[in-house]
Fold:
Amino acid sequence: MEIKELEAIVEAILFTMGEAVEAERIAAAVGQDEDTVRSVMRGMMERYEAEDRGIRLIELDGAFQLCTKASMYEYLIKIAHVPKKHVLTDVMLETLSIIAYKQPITRQEIEVIRGVKCDHAVNKLIEYNLVCEVGRMDAPGRPILFGTTEEFLRSFGIASLEDLPVINPEKVEDFKLEAEEEIQLTLDIVP
Structure:
């Protein structure tokens, strides 16, 4: 099979599926090895980025998807009339960050880290498809475990969780000191 033919088949598969498809599934469908398919898709990714096209090919945690380039968003709004853009509050971003870095994690563990209830934030993140239930903890009450979704990766423009920024250990210590000082102030105020 020629490269151009393979590219056309991959493009058709990704366009039709409309969601991220694992390289191994594509390789099985086209009768090629996974390395060949990945090589072809990476070549396509480079060309889509370099050429004046409205779409691009992205990789999401080992899967590939066709999507619209961000520069085309204003034209899509004119057609769709209502953009599907969710506003993330500071509370939601904080909760999402905790989930992204600590997943899988329970609501209770999030609340311990944040120091306040997180039901509304978690429910909104689920509604926005940035977070989902990934299982249940093997503990009394079998609490739900949460993790991020492909939509999270897509929304923040990262290919996998390994691409999340590394937290500076010195900053973590600063945050711990600030939290301890805040707790001490609270204890000093409460009679």
Remarks:
- The mean pLDDT is 87.
- Strands lie at 21-22, 55-60, 63-68, 131-136, 144-148.
- The chain is about 55% helix and 15% strand.
- The chain has two domains: 3-73, 90-189.
